[in-house]
Amino acid sequence: MPGSQARSRARDRNNVLNRPEFMSLNQPPRREQGDSSEGGPAADGGVKDGSRWPEQDCMQLNPSFRGIAINSLLAIDISLSKRLGVCARPHGPGAPLRSMVTLLALSGHALPWLFGTLICLWRSNTLAGQEVLVNLLLALILDLMTVAGMQKLVKRRGPWDFPPGLLDYIAMDTYSFPAAHASRAVMVSKFLLNHLVLAVPLRILLYLWAFLVGVSRVLLGKHHLSDVGCGFALGFLHFTLVESVWLDSATCQTLISIGTLRWILLV
Region Disordered: which residues (predicted)? Predict the structure, then answer.
């Protein structure tokens, strides 16, 4: 008898189901309070199903392929983004290029484009030019508000999690997803290519500028690769939306008159 008890205890120790994370599998199904045998749900004329496990006792032993794929892609995205952030630190491997990359990223910031468009609109004397500039201004505002709203909703941090600067707070570019600079660069480049007559080298340079603006944000450690990719797609979507609801010259003149009147009243 003592030998059989020792063998029984040894089997219990070797049984994998006795490990703490699998203890719930050895427990009998829990019946809901007030079983029909106790007269609880008999008044309702039914018996509750007690064979379902409580949520805290469940363990996902076989995660789905979709979950594994998404987690793997996110891990690759974070790893590559951190490796490509060579200009993130002042004394990092990309320190000699940091100033140029920062200037390139600044060319895609919201403030230069907003103020530049307003100045050109103020100095423009043609109806066609004012029409294009008003629609460009509305496209920039749409891009700014949409990206800022998505960033507030997602609240994803950058690969190096740097605190936003003063210009980022002014432009409401405080989070990583999606990349505001990439979205703005694609939208502006598509807008200019569609409404300006440019030579082939200038058109190629404009495409290259939009791509490098997005890459510069990754090199500075501000955004992940997926943030920039989604920013490119979002900028193209903004351009398509603005083209589909293009404001004609008469509407643009009305908006200019309202804006001028409000400016005069404020002054």
Answer: 1-54
